Amino acid sequence: MERPSLEFNLPDTHEEGKLYVVDSLNNLNKLNVCPAESQRSLEEEENTAGTGERIAGSNTRNQCWFFITFILTLIISLALVSFVIFLILQTRNEVDQISRRLLSEKKNIEDLKKINNIILKHLNQSGIKE
């Protein structure tokens, strides 16, 4: 296939005419070089050239916010887990203290039962009846 030459002998025209001819040649070149579908994508790229940078900046900003949110979530989770562990340890200490008190009270009650039994035996032996 032969490629059409892009060099044309243009007659002398005013500046506006020259710009129009150059623009027309550019459009003709795009039509010859690019198929119709890729032409649309080229036009879309030209139309969104400024927004592409905004989208890239927005992506970077979104990633930054994601990481900041992720780190804050991790810190808050760590604080909550630490608080729960602290509460578990405090509860364990309280339960240990209560257990020790119950054991000592149990020993005291057993001692009182022994003393009561001794007193009852003594009263029964002495013959004092109610």
TrEMBL record:
Q: Which InterPro entries match?
A: DUF4577
User: Which sequence ranges are marked TM in the entry?
Assistant: 64-89
Q: Which domain of life is it from?
A: Eukaryota
Region forming the signal peptide: none
- State the Pfam families in the record: DUF4577 (PF15145)
Keywords, ordered alphabetically: Membrane, Transmembrane, Transmembrane helix
Q: Does the keyword Repeat apply?
A: no
| PANTHER family, per database record | LEUCINE-RICH SINGLE-PASS MEMBRANE PROTEIN 1 (PTHR36475:SF1)
**Protein name per its UniProtKB record:** LSME1 protein
